[in-house]
Design goal:
Layout: E1 16-18, E2 21-22, E3 28-30, E4 35-36, E5 45-47, E6 54-56, E7 69-77, H1 85-100, E8 106-110, E9 116-121, E10 127-131, E11 135-144, E12 148-150, E13 173-186, E14 195-198, E15 202-206, E16 209-213, E17 216-218, E18 227-242, E19 246-247
Antiparallel strand pairs: 1-2, 1-8, 3-7, 4-7, 5-6, 7-11, 8-9, 9-11, 9-12, 10-11, 12-19, 13-18, 14-17, 14-18, 15-16, 15-18
Length: 248
């Protein structure tokens, strides 16, 4: 849920939702010099003895691994309805406590990219610069997982948010009588463990992997690699796959 507030009369009305609360709640506006850092690839290589060649094992588990990234947000802090130093201190102190409270990565949704979220944590101390006229700048660095995560699951029928440049339509809900061959498409950059929801016991066969699904929600140590995954579903009933695309 995005929480917004008109009470502080934010000039730019541009911010971000962190841990379920919008930055405007604390009189914060994101300034223009925001930086969205990109992750480095994590390369795993082995030298071949007596050779100038190397073996690259970076995608040994199905997809290229990446390191963490940094998102740098400079916030302008001001309450234009109460231009007092005391009010400014209340705002920035509450903002710092809000940002520093989580002890693990939580969701961050940028207003300009509302259909995706990052998993982030403020690990470095924010910096505060105060100006004479009851306003200031709070600079915050979020340490983030390498991938953005789509808010809506793949194959949903929410056409209002469908992007014809980047999204694909696919079936993720199936009625099975006996058996059926299906395919799932992971068009992101990272393997994804799906949640499998079934109203009866079924068996999934994908390559050399065989999975017994029980009634209800199921998760297994089995992921949908990047690209196409072919699955044979054996049983009778309704089954759904829920997974969320991950991209840089």
């Amino acid at each position: 849920m995005i929480v917004t507030s008109k009470g502080k009369d934010n000039r730019y009305t541009y911010g971000a939702t962190f841990n379920g609360v919008h930055s405007s709640e604390y009189g914060l506006d994101v300034l223009a010099d925001k930086e969205i850092g990109l992750p480095d690839k994590t390369k795993i290589t082995v030298d071949i003895p007596y050779s100038n060649n190397i073996i690259d094992l970076s995608d040994l588990y199905g997809s290229q691994a990446y390191g963490e990234r940094e998102l740098k947000y400079p916030f302008h802090v001001m309450d234009r309805q109460d231009m007092q130093k005391e009010r400014l201190y209340v705002l920035w102190q509450k903002a710092v406590n809000w940002l520093m409270a989580p002890s693990h990565k939580v969701g961050l949704v940028d207003d300009v990219d509302p259909h995706w979220h990052y998993l982030v944590e403020v690990q470095k101390a924010p910096s505060w610069e105060e100006f004479k006229s009851a306003h200031g700048t709070l600079e915050v660095t979020f340490t983030a997982c390498p991938f953005r995560i789509k808010n809506d699951y793949e194959g949903n029928d929410i056409w209002d948010t469908f992007n014809f440049d980047t999204d694909i339509a696919q079936f993720v809900d199936f009625d099975i009588v006996g058996s059926k061959d299906v395919v799932l498409y992971n068009i992101g950059l990272n393997g994804i463990i799906p949640t499998i929801i079934s109203d009866s016991n079924m068996t999934l066969i994908s390559g050399d992997t065989e999975i017994d699904v029980v009634t209800g929600e199921n998760t297994f140590d089995w992921n949908l690699g990047v690209g196409v995954t072919a699955i044979k579903i054996v049983g009778t009933g309704h089954i759904s796959f829920r997974f969320y695309r991950e991209e840089i």
